[in-house]
# Entry
Amino acid sequence: MTEAIFFIFSIVLIAAAFGVIASKNPVHAALYLVLSFFTGAVLWMLIKAEFLAVSLVVIYVGAVMVLFIFVVMMLDINFEELRKGFWQYVPVAGTVAAIMAVEMVMVLMHRAAAIDGAKLPDPAPGYNNAKVLGELIYTQYFLPFQLAAVILLVGMIAAIALTLRKRKNTKYINPAVQIKVKRDDRLRIVSVPVEARPSVEPPKADDGEQQA
Amino acid sequence: MTWTSLNASFATPEIFLLCAACAILLIDLFVSNAKRHITYVLTLAALAVTAYLLVTNYATQPQLAFNKMFVADPIASISKLGIVLGVALVLIYGRGYAAARGLFRGELFTLTLFALLGMMVMSSAVNFLSLYVGLELLSLSLYALVALRRESVQATEAAMKYFVLGALASGMLLYGMSMVYGATQSLDVTVIAHKIVSGEANRLLTVFGLVFIVTGIGFKVGAVPFHMWVPDVYEGSPTLIAQLIGSAPKLAAFAFIIRILAQGLEGFAFDWRGMLVVLAVLSLVIGNLTAIAQTNIKRMFAYSTISHMGFLLLGILVANPIGYSAAFFYAFTYVLTAAAGFGLVMLLSREGFEGDQIADFKGLAKRSPWFAGMMLLVMFSMAGIPVFVGFFAKLAVLKAIVNLGMVWLAVVAVAMSLVGAFYYLRVVKVMYFDEPTDNTPIVAAADARIVLSLNCLLLLGMGLAPNWLLAKLAEAVQYSLLPL
# Structure
């Protein structure tokens, strides 16, 4: 029974993964990715890693993919344009991929590559998936876990460094600077000599406007 | 499970570096653009303290820490010292270059420090998990650094290529590691080695995984036929980032390869030797032949790096301590040589002028006889002309190869070095026998000039007395490969 479920969901997973790269519409591709995450979560559930399965659904399907679809919809990218010339590489790429796939199957299907199917150990009474995982992460896998956090930090720094830019045309004025302004910065008293034929000059008020 | 049972004290330099990088990240927020040199000085100070901690924590015997995820041994300590030095040289040579191009920002320093942390972890990791995490930390920082000059289309394209191919390489590496895990039921390098020796490991599956691991490594070090990204990334990225990619990570890559192939999979040395022979020969041939056609010196350095990586792999494929120490010596001296080469390119650059064409070196002997002499030292060392350190590095590798009985491989390597000498000497010819087309004075700061001169003279100095370092590295390899 478990085996049947495993094979059904594995086939769905592979089909969905293929759909991610083959579908023309990026929103469809993202939805296929949701499907492949979901079936992946089911496979984890089958090996009784329920915490990982739930977190995969909650984090990837619930948060990351929603954000991803949001970004795809916000950005106006012509994906058809990007795909131009995609098919011209298919014959070569397909041949190479087919040869590699056949070679890999030949190796992995070979009798010498067989490993004894490891049976899942029965969980001890009171076994708690999330608790055990947490304990392992903070003891056995302390170093990689901390370094993974550093990688996320680097990702954050990189994202900010590559996208944050000061906009040049905003009309923003720093209030702190604005209230520090002195009369001399803004006001210029021009002595206009009296002339025989007085002409009306426009007011000079706009001089200091940009100084703040 | 307590804090002390982690043996975290063996990782003191890394822990300090992580804290320092986070502190600099925060301090930089409060530093105005005009005072950015504060961040620069703090970064160099952090590097100096890390180097000091590495010296005081020098491990003469392999010491495990973090539940067998991390090892402190002589190979790790010496590689890390070389890596810290290589990163410091990047910052010193690149300061003026970065300032003239609007790159002198806080992210340059923090990302560089995180890349350094990744390299240090790579040198010390003895578990596939920590090896991979260190590699990703390095790669991710480098992708971002290449893209840092975001208004440049060329830099963005280079970053994209680097990122996509780097991700592909990581995928290959992980797939290979998962296969080895399946065959040995362990991610721990020493346990894998034990299982292979005792015959418990499934041979076919392990070798199948090994193919993907070697492919991933080939991508990461830029060995032919996985070298496509190297020239574009070197040419497209700012020169100081090209220096960062082209120097220190080679030493980290050496340690990384030693951990996986020599310490983990030595039982299958016969299998990976064949793969490395192909990579090394192709790298030597294609790297050196393609370099001849280049007019951009950064691209020329890229193809020259590919051929040098061929030599590094030649040393490793010997699969005995003699070969490993020859490769170690090669990687160590290559870091210094490449750093000096890129430093000289940046020395010639100024605001609005990259100076990265070979033609820009025309008549350098008339403009600045001293730095023309320094470039001559670097080119001679890269070409492997006697008395310079590059010669002894090549000699050590060739000796190890001949000892193994693979004379034809040594002949190929020597023939390709001769081809390589052509394009290195062409730069010398351009400097000494062509008339200068551009007589603008060199505008590099005094500190960069002094350090660069010392760096170049060191290439000559190490060439005059190579035995001390060679013996030290051989000893390090010998003590590090002791069974844990």
Summary: Strands of chain B lie at 63-65, 70-72. The interface with chain A takes residues 1, 6, 11, 18, 22, 25, 66-67, 69-70, 105, 107, 110-111, 114, 117, 121, 127, 129-130, 133-134, 136-137, 140-141, 143-144, 147-148, 150, 182-183, 202-205, 208 of chain B (CB under 8 Å). Residues 287 and 306 of chain B are 5 Å apart (CA to CA).
